[in-house]
Amino acid sequence: MRLLLIVAWLALLVVAVAAWTKEDYEIFDLVSAIEAAEGKGTSFYSWLEVSPSASTSEIARAYRKKSVQLHPDKNPGVKGAHDIFARLGVISKILRDTEGRKRYDFFYKNGVPKWRGTGYYYSRFRPGLGTVVVFLAIVTSVLQYVVQRLNYQRDLKRVEEVTAQAKSAAWGNRLTPGEGQRKVKVNLGGAPRIDEDGSLVPGRMVDMVVEGNDVFILEEDGSLLPVDNSTAVPPSFSRTWPVVLASSLYAKIVGGQKAVDQEDKEESEDTSGTASDAPGSGTVTPRERKTRTANGGPVATSMAGGRRRKAVRKK
């Protein structure tokens, strides 16, 4: 029953937000601007110094009087004078319009909603692409963490069920531990079922060993795999996709740089102790040798009689 009430309340909220129009959003902005400039609780009527039941002609006279006071020519050097004067004109127009005044009176009596819908906030703040990407990364990371936590709780419950089955098979319903090890078979594949031909198909039976309060899975090679809470993977933000992606990119960058450094080190070792690389020395570094070989050029030069002689490649 409580869940139904929450769903109904959310449905009403969605309907109310969807029903707000562009004119309503304009009223929301004006109310926020007036309260920020004149103080909390300032209304259109109190700013114009008229009563909420004032007639259209009274509102018009109040507007003319206020416009003389707030005209930018009358307030030179006042910061935001043009914005204030423009705001006065919009408020006067809303209150002198029958439908506009009706909409404002509704919010004047019931209060401006605190949550005005995602469309309202997006249209006002218009976040950039970077902000949107960061926001989505945070939201999806939190959701992934929540899923990890749910899976962790499910795994803990499964471990508890399996250990209880193994101990019950080993020591009976009293679960009084005995001495030594007990080898039992535990069904980990669900309840047995009847096949199409009417034969009984057992669940996935696994060999397990119970020793005191410890439970193990017996592997084919005879090794024992403990079954306890440590087998369940706890939730961690380090396993969410943004962190994993960043770690992977960092590892590739660092690994690539290490490979380049290692290659340079090997080349330095190969060329150490040989003739200098000065022009005419004929020394070729391993990297140059690879480049020349790939380009089909000569791979070595030799010195004979003080002259450089190209090595001729046999066809």
The computed structural class is: alpha+beta
- Which whole number gives the mean pLDDT? 77
Number of spatially distinct domains: 3
Tell me about the largest β-sheet: 4 strands, antiparallel
The CATH topology assignment of the largest domain is Helix Hairpins
Low-confidence stretches: 10-18, 299-315
Order of neighbouring strands in the sheet with most strands: 1-4-5-6
CATH architecture of the largest domain: Orthogonal Bundle
Number of helices: 10
**Range of strand content:** 5-15%
The CATH superfamily of the largest domain bears the name DnaJ domain
Subcellular location: Endomembrane system
Keywords: Membrane, Signal, Transmembrane, Transmembrane helix
Membrane topology: Single-pass membrane protein
GO cellular component, one term: endomembrane system
Task: Jot down its keywords.
Helix Hairpins; 56% helix; signal; disordered C terminus; 315 residues
Structure description:
The chain is an alpha+beta fold. It has three domains: about 110 residues, Helix Hairpins (Orthogonal Bundle); about 100 residues, no CATH class; about 35 residues. Helices cover about 55% and strands about 10% of the residues. It is built from ten helices and eight strands. The strands form three sheets. It has a four-stranded antiparallel beta sheet with strand order 1-4-5-6, covered by helices on one side. Strands 2-3 form a two-stranded antiparallel ribbon. Strand 2 and strand 3 form a beta hairpin. Helix 4 runs antiparallel to helix 5 and helix 5 packs across helix 6. The chain is elongated and about 100 Å long. It is found in: Endomembrane system. Keywords: Membrane, Signal, Transmembrane, Transmembrane helix. It comes from Phanerochaete carnosa (strain HHB-10118-sp). This is J domain-containing protein. It is a single-pass membrane protein.
